[in-house]
Amino acid sequence: MAELFHEIDHCVTAPQGFRAGTTACGIKSDAGIKDLAILVSDVPCTVAGVFTTHNLRAAPVLLCQERLQDGQGQAVVVNSGNANCATGEQGLHNAYRMTELAATNLGLAPELIFCSSTGIIGRQLPMEKLEAGIPQIELSREYGDAFAEAIMTTDTRPKRLALEFEIEGQAVRLGGVTKGAGMIRPNMATMLSYLTTDVAVERAWLQQELRDAVNDSYNMVSVDGDMSTNDTCLIFANGLAGNTPLNAQHPDAETFRQALRYITRYLAREMARDGEGATKLQTIHVRGARDKADAVLAARSLTRSPLWQCALAGGDPNWGRIAAAAGSSGCEFDQNAFDIFIGETQIAAKGMAIDYDQDQAHAAMAGDEVLITIDLHLGNGEATAWGCDLTHGYIDENSLYTR
After folding, report:
1. At how many degrees (to 10) do helices 203-215 and 253-273 cross?
2. Catalytic residue at 190?
3. C-alpha distances in angstroms, 279 versus 91, 154, 284, 312, 391?
4. pTM passes above 0.85
5. Which of 46, 178, 190, 373 does the annotation list as catalytic?
């Protein structure tokens, strides 16, 4: 993998033809904090997307889903500090107005502009601030990292990555950013994510590859089991690399697929690592399930268990919490067959405790990354999920969020 892909700087503006810009327009309560951003391609792009499955969908999600039907786009404008959700017809009007303002600033048709919002639910967007802020945004290839910072809400750090690799013998690039630290639950997309590439890709294949990548990455993350109303993942492919458009039959299709998975899985882990109040990243690997679907059920159940998350926070290798979460997940489960490992230390075999080294188990729980492996011994299904511990910091964050 390391030989195929080289990590490079500037995340979403690393691929040729992409620029970004940010400003502080006062949507967030802290004056001077960047809270408005634009990402744009020099040329129209093939666009694919995946969105929240929540029954309460924010106005920007509705707009993006409508515009995605054409499969074309050139830019996205994003604000943080206000979700523009549960805001009725006025909220939808404001979302469209937001793209019109960006279109005027960029000299593009509004139909080519997508938008996203993130922040507090139930408040109308302060349009006078957007009216003043969007024209102030200056665009540059150097501002990819700044874009990643401007879209944050309760995140403590930006999540970003770009890769360089080869398609048809020439260097191409794929970049990505996410924001997300709370209201993270594995049921697409659990956050905002934007991906860019200069590779030419057929739209139907790009949509399928994005959905598959999301299922194995963003949909395998949980911080608190709560689903967001604004989840959006968009990928923009502008084709400036000049390659034959990728599809399933292209000889380099697998290379692009692996690059996309590399980035989305990295960003998924970073969201879990930065969960609100989190001190530990947990990786849950389930093997030996009846099939992959069952492995997904078991892995996700553990990341959503408050009992286990509390044990994780305390460094307590209480494997009963692990077994209880897996056994209640809905997967096929033989209580006399499963094994459990914390790090390299096996602590349960054939559904029962074994004589294990307590010091090793506590040491495996003590670091800021903890690996749990569950072998169900029922088949060949495997899945990996990511989550974090549950600390008082999570309560502090969410008891004061709207103040």
Report:
1. 40
2. yes
3. 36, 15, 16, 9, 8
4. yes
5. 190
